[in-house]
């Protein structure tokens, strides 16, 4: 039973946050180039454009995961309808 609950918890938090991160990345990076952003904020660092996309995606995913987890906790989790 614990394994099923754990999988449901992960499925109800990781998947929506991944989808939200994908949409947020597309919207954000459609108008902002990571290379230009890096040159304006951290000119001494040398990270590639692809690394900027990756870091941005994982930051958006982290924010989405925090939001999904908070929603999951405040809603009381998923109750098993068979009990």
Plain-language structure description:
The chain has one domain. Helix content is 77%, strand content 0%. The longest helix has 30 residues. By secondary structure, it is mostly helical. It has three helices and no strands.
Quick one: biggest sheet?
none
Radius of gyration: 17 Å
Strand content: under 5%
The number of strands is 0
Short summary:
The chain is mainly alpha-helical and 83 residues long.
Task: Please name the defining characteristics of this protein.
mainly alpha; 83 residues
Note the topology.
Blueprint: H1 2-31, H2 34-41, H3 49-74
